Amino acid sequence: MTIKPMIILPDPVLRKVSEPIERIDDDLKKLAGDMLETMYEAPGIGLAAIQVGVPRRLLVLDVSKDEDDKDPKVVINPTILSSSDDRSVYEEGCLSIPEFYADVERPAEVTVRYTDLDGKEQEVTADGLFATCLQHEIDHLDGVLFIDYLSRLKRDRVIKKFTKASKQNKL
């Protein structure tokens, strides 16, 4: 397994819409394993392939709180089938926007259809942190970042801060 370098805001790659995955092969399984290792190392609870520079509809997540009882999930070509009218607010962060957190309101419950690493179609109804994490990562596959849910002023400030930081790092 390999720790992958993270794509950081303001890199335009983060705004790309990811392509559907046509087949599950050894390369995809290796990518999923590398992504899980990268996510755990960060540490984070979710990671979309685009965040490691691969514009494919793949995400990994693990919202378990216990280090000894990990529950990694690999989600391929996810589609949100339904969202509840009830809303919930979680303080979200993102491995591609390090050390910035903000409250984001999303549907409290979602039902998602996806393919697992064995090629089997799955359907899951998620709530709580699991629902929030799924929505956050699926957004990445569509080129949407959690800062897009903030006011224009807050979003512009974050983008400006990361743009400035990236220019300073390239000097």
From TrEMBL:
Cofactor comment text: Binds 1 Fe(2+) ion.
Gene3D superfamilies for this protein: Peptide deformylase
Cross-referenced Pfam families: Pep_deformylase
Molecular function in Gene Ontology: metal ion binding; peptide deformylase activity
Essential cofactor(s): Fe(2+)
Keyword Secreted applies: no
GO BP: translation
Keywords per UniProt: Hydrolase, Iron, Metal-binding, Protein biosynthesis
Binding site for Fe cation: C94, H136, H140
UniProt-annotated catalytic positions: E137
InterPro entries the record matches: Peptide_deformylase, Peptide_deformylase_sf
UniProt-listed Enzyme Commission number(s): 3.5.1.88
Catalytic activity: N-terminal N-formyl-L-methionyl-[peptide] + H2O = N-terminal L-methionyl-[peptide] + formate
Coiled coil regions, renumbered to chain: none
Role, per record: Removes the formyl group from the N-terminal Met of newly synthesized proteins. Requires at least a dipeptide for an efficient rate of reaction. N-terminal L-methionine is a prerequisite for activity but the enzyme has broad specificity at other positions.
PANTHER family: PEPTIDE DEFORMYLASE (PTHR10458:SF22)
Family: Belongs to the polypeptide deformylase family.
UniProt cross-references to HAMAP family, sorted A to Z: Pep_deformylase (MF_00163)
Name of the protein: Peptide deformylase
Organism: Martelella mediterranea
Gene name of the encoded protein: def
